[in-house]
Amino acid sequence: MASTAAKKVSNIFVWILLGLFFIALAGFGIGSFSGGSSQVGAVGDAEITADDYFRALNNEINAQAAQTGQAVSFAQIRARGIDQQVLAGLIARAALSHEAAQMGISVGDVEVARQIGQVAAFQDTAGQFDRNSYEFVLQQQGSSPRDFEEDTRGDISRALLQSAVIGGLTPPVIFAEAIAAYQGETRDFTRLAVTRSELTDALPEPSEADLITYYEEFPERFTRPEARRITYAWVIPSDIMDGMEIDEVALRALYDGRLSEYVQPERRLLERLVFSSQEAAQAAYDAIAAGETDFDTLVEDRDLTLDDVDLGEIAPTDLSPGAAEIIFADDESEIIGPAPTSLGPALFRVNAVLEASEVTFDEARNDLSAELTEESARREINAMREDVDDLLAEGATLEEIAADTAMMIGTIDYTVSSEDGIAGYDNFREAALAVRESDFPELLVLSDGGLFALRLDELVPPTLPPLDEITDEVAEAWAATTLRDAVASRGQELVGQMAQGASLEDLGDTVEERLIRRQDLLPDLPPTTVAQLFQLDAVGDVVMIPGAQAAHIIRLDAINSGVRDAPDTSIMLLILEQTIAQSLAQDIFEAYGEALQADAGISTNQGVINSINASFP
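Above: the chain's sequence. Below: its structure in token form.
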């Protein structure tokens, strides 16, 4: 019983440390940084060694790299503040160790041995603790059994302390119920769309003065974002396919290998219902013919579904000779049978007849030629890789490579919205965002078998093009704004008519929306519609919401309280209760940890920290 309780405490400790970045035993994966003789800091009597900090930081760097799939530098870690988070986690851990020691919390050797015996890395193939494996793994990780066992003892002690602090927290149920009631509330409303057709006057055409004013008033709408000016050399199969010769023997072999695709016999989409005897099958067929039942009913009576009896697309060779002869000789009937099958006599339902088809070699020739040519082009491009790699290694520029090989040179002012030409390839987009001015060009592969290399020439700051270069774009934006303003103005006029006694239904065609929740998305309406709907205070309240193509008049029809016993409400309550409990426990434990640190006192050695940081690339 005691063993089960200890395991439960340990599990709690692993999973709900709640934001304090506790550094667990997985940190013992790196060799010693300084033999443990240097201290990064201390909280009271609990030390934070250089090894502790090095291992924890290295683990975090490895975790970030595993998550992103790319190497992560220390500069990136530092820019995100992760080094400070790691140090804060070690300080929190030390504070718990200090307090546990002050309170005399510890565990005996038996529990330490039990915990270590559960580590899979220390077990043999039968799942039993193996001393040789234990010592070997620790040696490989730069640790010793004594150090590891003391760290394990400390981990368990800290877990016991944490459990004592937050183990019995139960937040009031009213918290979750209040939030669930808020989230579970729904509303009904009626809406009227005010579009261009409802305008009393036609929209004007913009004058030159209108465009100048609009361009000067809204420059941010036309300013091009920062771009990465990139020079690239590339080659793709389609660039060199025209010069490829076609091997007639290979072409015919490719056609023959796919003959089953090009020459297909008559096929039928069939469903099959098997019976125990010829008499039962014939009786079912007669009942269908007499109109006493149908195929679907027979399937349901057998506790089957249509998926159970569906055969899909069937050729004559897919059936037994007797069944194929009966089924493919009948071009009129929907229900055919009884026909013999390996499972017994069966009725077949014909859902479609697919006529026999044949694509001759000459008809398929162009497609097959394109396929073979593209494959040959891929092979030729692949054969170029070593030569291009050598040229890059020798310091050749992209322009020189394009002059000496089949690769072509190009430039692009790349932004995240670029998608033309080479920017249509995912690999290029990723490389374009990652490249730095100091990087040397590297040969990379495109998804169609092409190759490319790129160079970042400069970062182009955000730029506002001259008006005469984007006149059509400005005119289009002016027209859109004019339409938006016009339908919004007309919408306000109609709201005014409602204030004088008109009903929403009197003003045009309305649409009713029912049981709308706060988190719902209404794709046909402006994105702020639901938020503004829930800001209305009383049934009958009206709001006009402008949109790009239409203004929408919304009338609140009903406010519906959440149903306490509804399944979705019950699930929401359970989730909220767990979330609130975790949040409360986190807040309390963080406050407890801060109090421990303040009471015990924190000291750090910035020189040792800087030295360790400098050891990372």
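Residues 201 and 486 are 9 Å apart (CA to CA).
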